[in-house]
Write a structure and sequence with these properties.
Layout lengths: L1 H19 L11 H16 L1 H5 L4 H11 L6 H14 L5 H29 L10 H11 L2 H23 L3 H7 L1 H6 L4 H16 L3 H20 L14
Helix pairs in contact: 1-5, 1-6, 2-6, 4-11, 6-7, 6-8, 8-11, 8-12
Length: 242
């Protein structure tokens, strides 16, 4: 299974490199792209305000918002994966390796969808005007790709379930700690730190079933609403401008 995970990861990293290269993908330079990501991050933070207010759920919610589905640049973490994963596979259970592979696939897919959204938003009469809900919803529908949107949500849940499975296994915390020193010596700490943050956050939950079920239900409802053109089922973030 570890070999299969590594092979899958290599394919994902090749895709990641191409999709983030501004020479191969000029849409990376669109000024509206960081505006879009800030808007989405604000929307998610508002949507999960109740989780952020719950001390037991806050670490997992913060991990979700910053490390899985936020406006953070994941390219450093994902570049680490190609070099560090063979070493880490000697220490870590496959559930954590799958979490890393799924997180990288999620980052790539989210970036690809964001590029398409940014391209649509750039066609507005005032491309750098603040992004409102109507702008976002229109771009979301024009991009379409409902199957990939469902897969995006599924990947979020898969990462969460893999981390939760790792938490339930005896000795994984010790193994994760053991891989820290080799990663640091190799100068490849971002992926290691990502896994540690995820493990710690999900350990605090004491079982991730309810948390992940709520994420799945809420994000599926948001996607359904956006595709249908219905009023937003969430508080609108402030309009984002350059």
């Amino acid at each position: 299974m570890a070999q299969e995970t590594r092979s899958r990861l290599i394919r994902r990293l090749q895709w990641q490199k191409a999709s983030n290269d501004p020479r191969l993908e000029p849409r990376n330079g669109l000024p509206v792209l960081p505006m879009l990501r800030r808007w989405q991050s604000a929307r998610l933070r508002a949507a999960f305000a109740d989780f952020l207010a719950d001390p037991s759920m806050r670490p997992a919610a913060e991990f979700f918002l910053s490390d899985l589905y936020g406006d953070k640049d994941f390219t450093g973490r994902d570049r680490d994966a190609a070099k560090i994963l063979p070493m880490m596979s000697r220490f870590l259970p496959d559930s954590l390796l799958r979490a890393a592979a799924d997180a990288i696939e999620l980052a790539i897919l989210s970036h690809s969808l964001d590029l398409r959204m940014a391209e649509v938003l750039t066609r507005r009469p005032r491309p750098l005007a603040g992004i409102g809900f109507d702008d976002y919803a229109d771009a979301y529908r024009r991009v379409g790709l409902p199957r990939l949107r469902r897969h995006q949500i599924a990947l979020i849940l898969r990462v969460g379930h893999a981390l939760d499975a790792a938490v339930q296994k005896h000795g994984v915390a010790r193994l994760l700690h053991a891989s820290r020193i080799p990663a640091k010596l190799a100068g490849l700490s971002e992926l290691q730190e990502f896994l540690e943050r995820g493990f710690t956050a999900f350990a605090a939950l004491g079982g991730a079933g309810r948390f992940l079920a709520e994420i799945g239900q809420r994000e599926t409802a948001v996607a359904r609403t956006l595709f249908a053109g219905d009023p937003p089922p969430f508080a609108q973030p402030n309009s984002s401008s350059r």
